[in-house]
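pls design
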């Protein structure tokens, strides 16, 4: 198998997984330029780079090495698409993970508990879920911190003994809390919709005309 064929296998497997070159670079911790060079046949991945790409694409390392039967590779890539399930179904589960922090509308700490639990459930079923769940947890931790600071600011006189200019405590708390809840809801929904749009573009790359 030639270097070009090796890059072609990686490109085909990437498209079947619904990843853009940038997403593959991010998931493998390789540079975008490295992925482009590999797919263009300018270089062959070796050692750790080869193992990272194979792991992310769900293909055995030996199938990305020259001299492997092209028929075997095509069969393996096809099985990867089947084993990973429908991309549309995966999109639905990841979208559910994305909007799961909205559970904070029931109780604030659910902003962390819900994505954490779903991340654990999905991490062995869908590629890249662990990283997405971690990012969501960081974002919602920041929101909870801001919510806590808002409460502390409203009641700073009782908590810290300070006497900063402040309108009626109950009114201020309602306004600050409502504002934080509102903007967090917008952020969560917006982030989920943005992901759906971006993912749809990635999936279009996997159509036969682009393979």
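designed seq:
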């Amino acid at each position: 198998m030639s270097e070009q064929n090796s890059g072609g296998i990686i490109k085909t497997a990437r498209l079947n997984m619904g990843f853009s070159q940038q997403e593959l670079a991010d998931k493998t911790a390789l540079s975008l330029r490295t992925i482009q060079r590999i797919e263009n046949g300018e270089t062959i991945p070796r050692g750790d780079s080869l193992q990272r790409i194979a792991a992310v694409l769900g293909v055995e390392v030996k199938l990305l090495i020259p001299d492997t039967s092209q028929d075997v590779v095509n069969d393996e890539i096809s099985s990867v698409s089947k084993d990973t399930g429908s991309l549309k179904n995966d999109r639905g589960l990841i979208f559910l993970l994305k909007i799961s922090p909205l559970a904070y509308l029931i109780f604030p700490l659910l902003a962390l508990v819900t994505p954490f639990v779903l991340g654990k459930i999905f991490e062995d079923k869908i590629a890249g879920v662990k990283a997405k769940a971690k990012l969501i947890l960081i974002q919602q931790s920041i929101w909870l911190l801001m919510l806590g600071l808002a409460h502390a600011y409203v009641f700073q006189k009782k908590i810290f003994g300070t006497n900063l200019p402040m309108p009626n405590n109950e009114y201020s708390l309602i306004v600050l809390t409502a504002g934080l809840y509102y903007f967090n809801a917008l952020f969560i929904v917006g982030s989920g919709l943005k992901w759906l749009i971006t993912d749809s573009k990635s999936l279009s790359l996997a159509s036969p005309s682009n393979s």
